Amino acid sequence: MSTPPAAIDADLGWALGAVYRxxxxxxxxxxxxxxxxxxxxxxxxSAVHDGAGNQADLAVQLGIDxxxxxxxxxxxxxxxxxxxxxxxxxxxxxxxxATHNGTTVWTQRCAALEHVERHLxxxxxxxxxxxxxxxxxxxxxxxxxxxxxxxxVEHLERxxxxxxxxxxxxxxxxxxx
Amino acid sequence: MSTPPAAIDADLGWALGAVYRxxxxxxxxxxxxxxxxxxxxxxxxSAVHDGAGNQADLAVQLGIDxxxxxxxxxxxxxxxxxxxxxxxxxxxxxxxxATHNGTTVWTQRCAALEHVERHLxxxxxxxxxxxxxxxxxxxxxxxxxxxxxxxxVEHLERxxxxxxxxxxxxxxxxxxx
DNA sequence: TATTGTTATACTCTATAACTATA
DNA sequence: TATAGTTATAGAGTATAACAATA
Lengths: 177, 177
What we know:
The structure is a homodimer. By secondary structure, chain A is mostly helical. Helix content of chain A is 52%, strand content 8%.
């Protein structure tokens, strides 16, 4: 067999996953003692900057379920990094605010993360800033992408409806092309 | 409070996560009927291109445990997409090869994914190719990054050893800056 | 009635340990 | 003895459903 048309290196999803895993591994040393690890740090970031009005919005922003966020904030609050403040205008809502200690901890970790990220993007050389810029732009515009309106699905030939079974010991139907 | 120094949008980890989640959501419609979803597709990609010599290498490449890969290949094999072939030179090793059907399915999905990815990166305009290039470069060089040798950890002020407790109902020690 | 957040519970996904077979 | 792969099991992570408080 000659050179394959597109090896796994060409797969955008694989590359995204590989870089993301690499990032998580690199960052672990800096934030592993925070409850929730990298995600706990992101909650702290949002709290320091008053990023989200309430928990529901914050959960969407972080891509997690609101019930998961409850436990996460519980731990951060018990560590004295953030605190829940009732919104006087809507007493159902809770504003997540960083404590003084939380702000100090965040500032330190943020500086350390800058070093890690610089190292992580080091192989890009002068293009590291370009990558940051493009990635930030993408992240800011993800909500504009609606898969349901994509023509990619229509492009895909119709397949027999074989629902994806993740159950381990179930014999799946063979996929026909 | 004036403009915060660095909101969550500036966080590289958040941006990576947001884009990665967006990718997974976008791709789901194309690969959801494959066992393992996007990851099953990646195994199929590797199988089509003879990407990994054995399962252990493939597991490392995909960032998953080898025991997880076993179940994943089980399902793909039962669907008739890949098959395990014993390596004649080391009969412990199994080569994961795509079946004829698997190659056909992969070719179709790969074409559909191209559309999804183009749509996903659409907001970057002409810079989409640049982003792909930089991301691929990063993914190819992730192994060069060793967090243990990073100066970022030394940059971080020494903290009391407060191991990260993910247990839900345990009172964690308060973090001192 | 709808929404925010919480809690209990069930489910999914992943990792650990022990095993077989090959080297 | 060490390694590749498998299996059973335990564990971590996540989501579903029911609830209380507020709108």
